[in-house]
Fold this sequence. Notes:
Blueprint: H1 3-11, H2 21-25, H3 35-44, H4 49-68, H5 78-90, H6 102-122, H7 150-163, H8 165-177, H9 181-185, E1 192-195, E2 198-204, E3 210-214, H10 217-233, H11 255-269, H12 277-290, H13 295-302, H14 307-313, H15 324-333
Antiparallel strand pairs: 1-2, 2-3
Helix pairs in contact: 1-4, 7-8, 7-11, 8-10, 8-12, 13-14
Amino acid sequence: MTTDLLSVIASIVRPAPEVRPLPLDRLPGSPGDDPFHRLAAAWLLSYGGHTQTAYRRDLTAWATWCQQMDVHPLAAQRFHVDAWVRHLSTTPQPRTGRPVSPATIARRLSALSGFYDYGIHDAGVLTHSPVASVRRPRVSDGGQAVGLTADELRRLLTAAAAHSVRTHALVALLTFCGLRISEALGADVRDYGHDYGHRVLKITRKGGKTARVPLPPPVVRALDDYLDQRNDHFPGRRGSGPLLLAADGVGRYPYKSAYEQLRRLCSTAGLPAGVTPHSLRHSYATENLRLGAALQDVQDAMGHADPRTTRRYDRSRHHLDRSPNYLLATSLTGDDAG
């Protein structure tokens, strides 16, 4: 449990509601702890890494809202959740200056629903969920990430190579392999190896699943160049620790640094503003499908459980020249489109 969530819990004015005492005794914590704290701690134990961090952040945001509404989180009703959704979707947020996107709201509601369902069905502490019947916002199929064309991707790779071997290695991994930024930065040197004649990188997907990603030659060259230089600068570090080190050679390359570096590279290369590591993942799907890769192969490469998710990443799927109408007409009549 983080300091942020604990401080919110400590400042809740409303007393904790009555909950089932015997199941509560089986949860982490002591009898003097707030039951929301104990239930949240138990629920978060089943998650790890970035998923746990995101869910903890969602619970903190919800507890903060409940504090403002003068209601304990475990006593909240549906109208409290509806009011939260309305607030998120209409009020500019301090960090971005814009309301929260429908996709983020949907994710927060999903986390909140999972938390209360755990409290009812697994922990046996609660008797109702205020999220059960809340309407989820409609999420656009297109997504909001900025996509890059093939030419723009080449310019980005050129700018990355000119900047440093570490930056080039990171951008190559994101561009050619479609990795999530967490997958690239979370890999260790020992995860870089061989498998049936392929150079591969073992990564940890969302949900803790592991996968072996085959690395094309440009990525292998970029990683080898980086590791060779790293060995010169930090002797003895090539064979151990994080694959991508922080600038001082201690610890992992930070997320914030990766985002900021990509923003500067895009500015140098004259690329659109707003490009993030996730933009490269969108571009990976779009370009591979445009080149004729099978949807199921791209789906597997990106670690998507549902092919519809992969389709949402394809930014060219609505182009009229891809309509099957032309394919069928050519087959039956011999007339080409146009």
